[in-house]
Amino acid sequence: MNISKARDYFSAYYENTLETGLRAQFERALREDAQVQAEYKAFVRAIEAINALQHEEVEVPFDLHERLSARIDKHVWVQKQGQRTSWLGAWWRSLAVGAVACVAIIGTVMMLTNRGPASGPSIQQAGVLGSASSAGPILSDQQGRLMVRASSADTDKVVITSIDQGKVIATIEVGKEGVNRELKNSNAIAEIIRIDRGKESAVVALPGTQAKAHEVGSGDIHDLAKAIADHFSVSVEIKGASNGRQFNWKLGPRDAQYATAAVIDGATLSTTSGRLILQVSDR
Amino acid sequence: MTNVPDDQLLIERCQQGDRSAFDLLVRKHERRAYQYAFRLTSSQDEAMEVVGDAFVRVYNAIHNFRGQSAFTTWLYRIITNCYLDLKKRDKSRYNVSLDAPAEVDGSELERQVEDPTAGPDLAVERGERERLVQHALTKLPEYQQAMLVMYHVENLSYEEIAETLDLPIGTVKSRLNRARLGLRELLTKNEELFTLD
């Protein structure tokens, strides 16, 4: 048996799986051929060296899980943005409206603060609406961003109140150029806010930055709106008086296109102009 | 973690859209996944990238997982593929020749070999051997590298490796033998470190 052939049997001989005849030949080669002997010994040392690695601890980053979670969260969010854009295209193609989710990338942003000791929202840049006539609905969707609109004909100021925190978080003076501001929630979980524009108001749940599944639940209208917002990562406007009613719900697959198929006792879910509308049913 | 549901149950919950179940699945396997990725890449950053890619792929494909193989086997396959993709993306890698094993010169090494006493020297010795073995692994073709790590470090059986790489067992055995021969050749250049009993 020459060295080239012998090498083919190194592993099998080491693992004691060579059949008897071949084993005898190999052992003869080991005895009689110095090169086979030397190479086999080196082979055994290499095996032992790599086996030793299993006893050497690999240091794992202390924040491994957090980093992996962030990576997956980001992937899910990017995926949803893409899905949402294609879902809405069929509905609002003529309006060139994009995603449903309330997420701003650049431009006019009004940030909601954390529940902690952070200060109030930062209003970064005034949007321009123009026109002295009514701005129309308080809320609108603008290329995937949820916007608050007001003109001087509507009111001289818009007040934003956090229902969850029980306090006013922003007051916007409406000048002659009007207001067209984006609403964005930087908290991890959904927040309910009320926007007062003169005598009109709108209540909306803004999804948090970390999507959460809420397939089955019960609670009041705000709990329901926040569950929907976080489950589907979409804004949810609440219409109708709930008067303290309790709701039971079952939400389907976490994809905005299935949102309106959600089963809710006592309320219905529909879509309009870039967000979901949660309408309390008449008793 | 105590009382973690088994993989089958977690996967079923994932397939029903339960993100918290997916989180648990990640937590259960992330350490081992990272360690395997690190053995392949020898780099913390690349190991992080590989294992991150892998779990994203798991997330995307979990709905199609039918349980025909163990979840860990499936995960090893995904990690291996992510590693192979990384290597394809980045051809110009950090490349240090084993002919110049860096910090320790021959005389220092000799002193360490001859010194019969201190634990720290032996620890340095072991550390240096590990570093050389780890480095030698990176010089091998990626497939051979993966097989060696799977068998010798992760303790997968031939059958499990065959399933992971979707190869016949006979092919796994012959390729693993070739990988061992390749490793032997690379390590022979630093033989002094590997003759110490």
Q: How are the elements arranged and paired?
A:
The complex is a heterodimer of chains A (283) and B (197).
Chain A: H1 3-8, H2 10-14, H3 20-32, H4 34-52, H5 64-92, E1 110-112, E2 139-142, E3 145-150, E4 157-162, E5 167-173, E6 179-185, E7 191-197, E8 200-206, E9 216-219, H6 221-232, E10 236-239, E11 247-250, E12 263-265, E13 267-272, E14 275-280
Parallel strand pairs in A: 1-6, 10-14
Antiparallel strand pairs in A: 2-3, 3-6, 4-5, 4-7, 7-8, 8-10, 9-11, 11-12, 13-14
Helix pairs in contact in A: 3-4
Chain B: H1 7-15, H2 19-41, H3 44-61, H4 71-89, H5 106-114, H6 119-139, H7 142-153, H8 158-165, H9 169-188
Helix pairs in contact in B: 1-2, 2-3, 2-4, 3-4, 4-8, 7-9, 8-9
| Helix and strand composition category of chain B | mainly alpha
- Poorly predicted sequence stretches spanning 5 or more consecutive residues of chain A: 87-132
Major sheet of chain B, described briefly? none
Q: How large is the radius of gyration of chain A?
A: 32 Å
Order of helices and strands of chain A: HHHHHEEEEEEEEEHEEEEE
Strand order of the largest sheet of chain A: 5-4-7-8-10-14-13
Question: What does this protein structure show overall?
Answer:
- The complex is a heterodimer of chains A (283) and B (197).
- Chain A is an alpha+beta fold.
- Helices cover 30% and strands 26% of the residues of chain A.
- Chain A has six helices and 14 strands.
- Chain A has helices at residues 3-8, 10-14, 20-32, 34-52, 64-92, 221-232; strands at residues 110-112, 139-142, 145-150, 157-162, 167-173, 179-185, 191-197, 200-206, 216-219, 236-239, 247-250, 263-265, 267-272, 275-280.
- Chain A has a seven-stranded mixed beta sheet.
- In chain A, helix 3 packs across helix 4.
- Chain A is rod-shaped, with a radius of gyration of 32 Å.
- Chain B is mainly alpha-helical.
- Chain B has helices at residues 7-15, 19-41, 44-61, 71-89, 106-114, 119-139, 142-153, 158-165, 169-188.
- Chain B is globular, with a radius of gyration of 20 Å.
- The A-B interface holds A 7-8, 10-12, 39, 42-43, 45-54, 56, 58, 60-61, 64-65, 67-69, 71-72, 75-76, 211-213, 215, 253-254 and B 16-20, 22-23, 26-27, 30-31, 34-35, 38-39, 44, 48, 51-52, 55-56, 59, 126, 129-130, 133-134, 137, 148-149, 152-155, 173-174, 176-177, 180-181, 183-184, 187-188, 191, 194-195.
